[in-house]
Amino acid sequence: MMEMRKPIPVAEAISRVMEHVQPLRAESISLERSMGRILAEPIVARHSVPPFDRSPYDGFAFRAEDSEGASGDNRVPFTVIGEIGAGYVGEQPVGPYEAYRIMTGASIPEGADAVVMFEQTVETSEGFTIRKPFKTGENISYKGEDAAEGETLIESGTLIHAGTIALLATFGYAEVKVYRQPVVGVLSTGTELLDVSDALIPGKIRNSNGPMVKAQLARLGVPFQSYGTTSDDLDACTEVIKRALEETDALITTGGVSVGDYDHLPAIYERLGAKVLFNKVAMRPGSVTTVAVLRDKFLFGLSGNPSACFTGFELFARPALLSMMGSTSPYLPHLKARLAEDFTKPNPFTRFVRAVWQMTEIGVTAAPAGFNKSNAVSSIARGNCLIVLPSGTRGYSKGDEVDLLLIGAEQGVEEWVL
Ligand SMILES: Nc1nc2c(c(=O)[nH]1)N[C@H]1C(S)=C(S)[C@@H](COP(=O)(O)OP(=O)(O)OC[C@H]3O[C@@H](n4cnc5c(N)ncnc54)[C@H](O)[C@@H]3O)O[C@H]1N2
Ligand code: MOO
Ligand SMILES: [Mg+2]
């Protein structure tokens, strides 16, 4: 009789994977190439930001004390002694009732401690007049108000995005220390698989998992090595997997992990001597997802069914790969939403439903994205999140509060509504 697989809870499966993560080394790369990588050093303010007191407006810099008593009936006149554009500094200190014309971003001249915008002055032959008293520091962008020298602004292990790049550039990080990326092999198994450009023939289908998994890796910024497709041939499949393990840091296979006559992955793990962390998870889709390790390398055996394959990647491969890359927050972001329609099918396993979330008058709602079985491909394309329905005997009703996992597939909205 066939060996019965014992399903383990999703959280247990994730923690078994995460326990086996071996972090990759760090490397230095140029700032231009660092988008999407994970910082292997904190960003520490190498100097104050701004690095000097500066003007936030185009106007005049003067001594606030000289504006005392100014009003509409008693306009205070100032003499302009020079001009400072951004990138320049004032030549001489500002004395009583003197001012510099100053542009946004320019350094505040010595002696001045306030700025008035051009629009709030009346220009005269010598300079301008103002109609209100100014406080010391009014309209001054102070040195260090954004970041103080020595302050840790971003922790190591954080994803580099456009804003991070701005900060790195601010401090002159021409080179950035980031974690190495794993090279991940992708192999789709299945005698039924055709290439994307092939015409359909009876009994065959096009390989959609391979391109999908590569796209999921691309979203994480992880480079891949493609091993194409193999037929369900034990020896041929074993050879490709052996080669892939030599050439990559981790391998993702799709298909062949269940109990069918041509599901060879379990036998291959045994042949290779890989340690199987689990081969049955109390989830749907993806219950047969298998993860094994061999000499510190992960073998992610994702299910052949497209929705199961997608979910298995996001739940197990994603956090493991991000954690290998040094990320301290490798899990999918989540939020709460109201179910937009009944989901009545109770299940002893946790369900991950491909769904669409949106903001409505009653807050965030989520609706299943159509045909939602493990073999569905259309709902993966339509969905922008996964609804998580914990195992249980009752179904779920419209309006129930549920958890959503965000999969980074948000589209824009048709109209600006705010
Ligand atoms: N007796 C049992 N049968 C099945 C069980 C079980 O527990 N007992 N589990 C079912 C579940 S759950 C799933 S999910 C599937 C998993 O199957 P495998 O991971 O072994 O994958 P395959 O058999 O190779 O293929 C399944 C399905 O997916 C299609 N497929 C495969 N690769 C691709 C690809 N690259 N692109 C698109 N579609 C692909 C394949 O043609 C099959 O239709 O097993 C159940 N059976
Ligand atoms: O492994 Mo499954 O649970 O139908 O996708
Ligand atoms: Mg199978």
Please give a structural write-up.
The chain has 418 residues and is an alpha/beta fold. The chain has four domains: 10-24 and 182-324, Molybdenum Cofactor Biosythetic Enzyme, Chain A (3-Layer(aba) Sandwich), CATH 3.40.980; 27-47 and 149-179, Molybdopterin biosynthesis moea protein, domain 2, CATH 3.90.105; 59-130, Molybdopterin biosynthesis moeA protein, domain 3; 334-406, MoeA, C-terminal, domain IV (Beta-clip, Beta Barrel). It has helices at residues 10-19, 162-170, 209-219, 234-247, 265-272, 306-324, 378-382; strands at residues 26-30, 43-44, 59-62, 76-84, 98-102, 114-117, 122-123, 127-130, 152-154, 175-179, 184-189, 193-194, 205-206, 224-230, 250-254, 275-278, 283-284, 290-294, 297-302, 334-339, 350-360, 363-368, 385-389, 401-406. The strands form six sheets. Strands 6-3-5-4-8-7 form a six-stranded mixed sheet, with no helix packed on it. Strands 14-11-15-19-18-16 form a six-stranded mixed sheet, sandwiched between helices. The chain is elongated. The N and C termini lie far apart (62 Å). The structure holds ligand LQZAQKY5, molybdate ion and magnesium ion. Residues 284-288, 303, 305, 308, 374 line the site of molybdate ion.
- Radius of gyration, in angstroms, nearest whole number: 31 Å
Do you know the CATH topology of the largest domain? Molybdenum Cofactor Biosythetic Enzyme, Chain A
What fraction, in percent, of the residue positions are helical? 10-25%
How are the strands of the largest sheet arranged? 6-3-5-4-8-7
> Hey, roughly how much beta strand do the residues contain?
25-35%
Function: Catalyzes the insertion of molybdate into adenylated molybdopterin with the concomitant release of AMP.
Cofactor: Mg(2+)
Enzyme class: transferase
Domain MoaB/Mog: 185-323
